[in-house]
Amino acid sequence: MGDPHPKLHATQLTRTFGRAPHQVDALGPLELSVAPGEFVCLVGPSGCGKSTLLRIAAGLLRPTTGTLEIRTRSLRPAAMIFQDYGIYDWKSVRANVRFGLDIQRVPRRTANARADEWLTRMGLADFAHAYPATLSGGMRQRVAIARALAVEPELLLMDEPFAALDAQLRTILQDELLDLTQTLHTTTLFITHSLEEALVLGDRVLVMSARPGRIIAEHRPPFPRPRTGDIRDTPEFTALKGELWELLRKEAVPA
To answer: Where is the ABC transporter domain (predicted)?
Structure first.
């Protein structure tokens, strides 16, 4: 079922940590398919294996059993954005955005031009030579997003990137990311605890069970694209948010 040529496909994926008798079953068995250009949001109770799944997709962890495949045309298909920004304090803003391009050995002039293009796009052009310590949290997360997108990834992995931000800034960045991803059509797997965030951004919202995490429900927000943050004010949005919350509440609170 699903897209015959998915960008990401997981089959019977599991991950455990430790050894018996102290083994922790963190994830799965999990089935997941993400189509090219699709924005998929994962929500679930704390500790259900969401971040573990993302790290397997990024190549930072190996699955215990099962497979996770990414159909790719490049050697480095994925870029990851973390909750804690993951940018380097000792590098300038421009050097941070350029970092992935430097790893790929893109010529410096080309890399600088692409970094500057993304800094302009993210409203950071005036801060190219600043250092992260002088930036606000929202600006640092914009640097992280610019760095990830500058390498033109085939798959964008986002692990609660806005969780540390205040509510107003979080809404602003959600709307900026919505505009960016609708323009670029980058395949995205996005983890969040915020149902509102998932419904604003996602083509699909997948609900995960308590640990070991499995996908127990799928919703397709009925909001056509191009989409704006104004959908937050619709009755359909409120109703779907309530429905998802009931599912999550049952997983988060033991019977």
So the answer is: 8-235
